[in-house]
Structures are given as C-alpha cells and as structure tokens.
TrEMBL record:
Region (Disordered): 268-296
Family annotation (NCBIfam families): PRK07940.1
Lineage top rank: taxon: Bacteria
Secretion signal span: none
Biased composition (Basic and acidic residues): 284-296
Database matches in InterPro entries: DNA_Rep/Repair_Clamp_Loader (IPR050238), P-loop_NTPase (IPR027417)
The protein, known as: DNA polymerase III subunit delta
Length: 382
C-alpha cells in the first residue's frame, strides 16, 4: 500500500502533498488542520514518509514499501520525530528539546522532520519557544504542526506555515478502507464508519471490538429511558463508568508493559528492593502514567458524549424531514417515536447542554460526574 492510501476522501490534500514531495511548493513549515477524525496526523505522517522515501523517481515517492517509508510509518525513523502529549499540555521543556532536535542534520534521510500532533495543546509561552526555530529553521529541517483549526495556533506561528486543510471523509470511504486494510466484513465496516461519524481511528476500533460496539449502543440508547431525576443521576454514573472502563482497558496493559520495559532497561533485580536511583525513575514513570490516565479518561468521556450527541443529531434530522442519512440507522423506529414527542427547539437545547458539558470536562477542573449529572438533568424527557 502507498502511504497515501489511508487518506480516504482527501484527494485535494493528497495532490498538494504529492506535488510538494516531488519538489513543487515545498516549504519548511506546514500546518495540518481538520476536525477530529479527518486524519490530519496521518496526512503529516504520509507526507514525512514521502519526503524521505528512498525511491529515485520523484513520482513514486511515498511508495510505502521501502525501509524509510516503513520506519516512518512505524514511527521509528531516526530523522523523523513525532510529538504527541498524553498530558493536558505540551510543556515548555519538551518544546525546548524539540528546538534542539530540529537543529540536528538528518542522519540518513533527506530531511530532519518534526511532527507535532497536538500543536493546539501548547500554551502561548510554549509556542513562542518554537517560533524562532520555525521562522529560521536549519536548511534540512521541516516542521509539521497539527491542530483542529488554524485558530488553535498562534497567528505568529500560523503565518509562517503553509496550510493543509482536511475534511471528514465520507463514511463510505472509511468503510472501504476498513475492508481493504483490515479485512473487516463490509456490513460491520459500514456500521462502524457511520457510528464513528467517519473518524477513521474510532471506526477501526468499533469494527474490531464487539464490546466497544455494545458500549456505544448502550450510550446511544440512554435517552430512551430518561424520565425523572433518578434516571438522570443513574445515567450520569453509567456514562462516566463507560468512559472510565474504556480508557482503563487500554491503559492497564500499556502501563504494565512500560514498567517491565523500564526495569529491564535499568537492569533491575528480579526480586528484592530497588536501589534509590531506580525507585526515583519508576516513580517518575508512575506519575507520568497517572497524568496520562487522567487525560485518557477525559478524552474517552468526551467521545462518549459525542456518541450520545449522535442520538439527538438523528432526532433533529427526523424532525427536519430526513434530509441526510442517520448515524444510528438501527434505532430508526425508536428515534422516530422520540422525535414525535418533542420539537426541534427542544432537541437543539439538549444538544447544547451536551456540548457545554464537553467543554467543561475538557477545559476546566470540574469533576466529570458533576458536569455529566448537570447535563443529564437537562435531557430529562417530560
């Protein structure tokens, strides 16, 4: 597979990046923007692979088969650095390390490439650390920043980057990718693509994990039984539990593997008390894992609320005349009954309540359960 194959439904972006990889309009800094699920980090990775591809024919660069392409796609290439934070923000110390790394000449490839996948998670003073390096990079260095929208990046950075704007691909394209790349059954791929609202990563998880599909359907069906304050409180507790279980299921195994790898690299004894120097490094790892767990739960809860939002989105579609396809086609009869019991104005107010809860959870220190309980009380069906 070519490195471009995963960019389903992004033909204009692929054409732009292919041309740049062949030397037409290549510049030292790029800003990839698009909503969650648009594949902005995948586009940056594919571009990085094409720039350092080993093919002599520029038209073939991005082959996906050479050692350089494979190691960049696997994020193990010595000249390509991928930065993504699993904390709330990228720290200023991490930014300084990037600037230092960007000053190195490429060891084996044509370019030293820095891909910052969470450019929107940098505070202003952190971003300013990168400004000089992006404004006046070393001759063989290319920066690639990824963010949901241009407004999420400081204008001083934005003005020095060439924009690459991505959109959410059609669900049919996402389903086709799951069938081709992962061998998913076409019916399951279509259902997963719709349920994920074309978010490729989430669609892949839903297609491969029946339990994840069941948890999502449980979330989407909650409003059907939401009558009274008691039901709202119970719904809030279940939503938070679903999000926490979803996050912990991936964190526990990863945390254990990281600890084993750290102890092995330190040459720790198989039994007995660790030396003080080793204990401090293990403690640092555990602290980092706790911060990561907090963010992963927050992200998981945000995704759970997005699934809940799809219920009201479908209700609104029905109330306004079925102009577009439903996300939750399997629940059409229940959705139609629910839509008949309210008005578009009420549905919009309920969607607004969910979005307010998402903002509170992701941008403030409010306890997630309190935010979800407040939201749930606004969704009670009279």
């Amino acid at each position: 597979m070519s490195v471009w194959d995963e960019l389903q439904g992004q033909a204009p972006v692929v054409a732009q990046l292919r041309a740049a990889a062949q030397g037409e309009g290549l510049t030292h800094a790029w800003l990839f923007t698009g909503p969650p699920g648009s594949g902005r980090s995948n586009a940056a990775k594919a571009f990085a692979a094409a720039l350092n591809c080993e093919q002599d024919d520029v038209a073939l660069r991005g082959c996906g088969e050479c050692a350089s392409c494979r190691t960049i796609l696997g994020e193990t290439h010595s000249d390509v650095t991928f930065v993504r934070t699993e904390k709330v923000t990228i720290t200023i110390d991490e930014a300084r390390q990037l600037v230092s790394k960007a000053g190195d000449r490429p060891a084996t490839g044509r370019w030293r490439i820095i891909v910052v996948e969470d450019a929107d998670r940098m505070a202003e003073r952190t971003t300013n650390v990168l400004l000089k390096a992006i404004e006046e990079p070393t001759p063989r260095t290319i920066w690639m920043l990824c963010a949901p929208s241009p407004a999420d990046v400081l204008v001083t950075i934005r003005s020095r980057c060439r924009p690459v704007s991505l959109r959410i691909p059609p669900a049919a394209d996402v389903a086709a990718l799951l069938v081709k790349r992962d061998g998913v059954d076409p019916a399951i791929a279509d259902r997963a693509a719709r349920a994920a609202q074309s978010h490729i990563g989430i669609a892949r998880r839903l297609a491969r994990d029946p339990e994840a599909r069941e948890r999502r359907m449980e979330t989407v069906r909650f409003p059907l039984g939401l009558r009274g304050v008691t039901a709202a409180v119970m719904m809030a507790e279940k939503l938070v539990k679903i999000a926490t279980d979803e996050a912990n299921s991936s964190n526990d195994e990863r945390d254990a593997a990281e600890k084993v790898a750290l102890l092995a690299s330190l040459g720790a004894p198989e039994s007995g008390t660790l030396p003080p120097s080793m204990r401090s490094q293990v403690r640092q790892l555990e602290d980092d894992q706790k911060r990561r767990a907090k963010r992963s739960i927050t992200d998981s809860l945000d995704r759970t609320l997005t699934d809940l939002l799809s219920f009201y989105r479908d209700v609104l579609v029905i109330q306004l005349g079925n102009a577009v396809e439903l996300v939750n086609v399997e629940l059409r009869s229940e959705l139609e009954g629910y839509a008949a019991s309210s008005t578009p104005e009420i549905t919009l107010a309920r969607m607004d309540a969910i979005n307010k809860a998402r903002v509170r959870i992701t941008t403030t220190n409010v306890a997630p359960l309190l935010a979800v309980e407040s939201m749930a009380s606004s969704l009670i069906q009279q």
